[in-house]
Design brief:
The protein is mainly β. The chain has one domain. Helix content is about 5%, strand content about 40%. The chain contains one helix and eight strands; from the N terminus they run βββαβββββ. The relative contact order is 0.14.
Amino acid sequence: METPRDRIVADCAAMRGSYADLRKGKLIENMSVAKAACGIEANTPILSARIEGKRESRFGPTTHLVIRDPNFIRTYDVDKNGALLGATISDHSGQRLLTNWAVYLSSDVPPDIFSKDSLGRSVVPERFKQPRPAN
């Protein structure tokens, strides 16, 4: 996963993850990073989980999941290949705290994209690094 301020890689089979905070120049490596990065966030106990059905995304149909944990309500839109194409985090009152979505989906990625060494460089195509034009 890559944002303008964060990069995360994980070996989900081994449950090892590395997180680079690009603003602070910090690197964190532990199982909690992998639990956050490997699909559905797994650092807190799940109180309930529901499949809410199918939804349409810009990449095609997804399965919409709703997960409740002690702190948050999380939703995920999951592609048929397992990629998370959208997610939200809300508090239990329903107040939305975070929304994220995929802007690009490709199975053609550098072979070392999931290594700790890859955190030092961006793999985002240049066309997605430009600011969006103002409305």
